[in-house]
Amino acid sequence: MSDVVVVGGGAAGLMAAGTAAYYGADVTLLEKNSRTGRKILVTGKGRCNLTNNCDNSTFIANVPTNPRFLYSAINNFTTQDTIDFFNDLGLQTKTERGNRVFPISDRAMDVADALRNFVDNSGVNVIESTVKTLITDNIKVTGVTDTMGRQYNADCVIIATGGLSYPGTGSTGDGYKLARSVGHKVTELKPSLVGLVSSDKFCGQLQGLSLKNVRLTVYENGAEIYSDFGEMLFTQNGISGPMVLSASANMRNFGKKSYNVKIDLKPALSEEKLDLRLQRTFEKYKNNQLNNSFKELLPKKLIPVILDLWGVEPTKRCNSVTKEERYALNKLLKNLKINIKSLGSIKEAIITSGGVSVKEINPKTMESKMVSGLFFCGEVIDVDAYTGGFNLQIAFSTGRLAGYYSAINSMPY
Fold it and tell me: Could you give the CA distance from residue 41 to residue 48 in angstroms, rounded to a whole number?
């Protein structure tokens, strides 16, 4: 019999297991994959943005879903604590744009390996196993059984199974089923930090085009709700890229509300300065056709799309463009509208929004309020944040609490 069984060997589970063992518990970690930390390997485009080098108030401001629930967790184990934790494990880090923290090696595998070493060196028994059911005596958890019929008895069980995003890494919603089986409520599960699907055909025409240093603004029922500056990418059926992923976290009412985004292709120029720029362009190429005059103004792939949306004949010569037509082009370049019909698939999302209701979890310990000895940490809980290292920090902070208090709870008095 173990003191603590941890279900799931991702970022939260590894932190929880290693912490519980560090504080003296006999810990068994059950992970369905042949190796731990699979999802860590695909984060940050394989570089792993492991946290954000910010203060606690900034961290909380980047959590749109149930931020108050995380006050105790982030105060107990801050972003600086995470940086120090990995440095102590021998993994040196660096801070980049947006206070994003990466390993100096730029290798996500080094982060996964550091966590695994932490677990191994703490004495955790890691077993490849898929948990099927929780064992309880109605008021207290007493262990788990796996799909092979094996039973693992324990004083405490930590569920750290992740969400539904990136199912190839093992995130297939197992934790939600376990939570529901003992009476926990699971809120609606939706994709977050995911590409956006558009009804506009021109997105497909622009597939693969990356735009840098542009401004994106999100509108919900015509009202501005979010704006960001940076990089985006056109896809076969919509848009993606760093800015878009963050924007998606603010678009949570599809079906009830309508959404569109507007792209300012020339954010460094006011409308007045852009008009002067257009006048200079049309003067320089005054005897040329419009479709041969925009190469200094726009990426080649974008030119035919802008000309089509502008509605002016592409073969028209620059010296015959009217003042009204020039103003219309100005508005288009400052407000390229893209209609959004849905979020991308949850299987493609970086994070799952929704999960085990925070109303049923003690925020100071991560223990269930319904079943004694049962703990939750990481993405399985109904908390999620913007892109930038915040979601992994949630995993580490909640995993730290769950690991510590499960160890304390399992100790004989």
Answer: 7
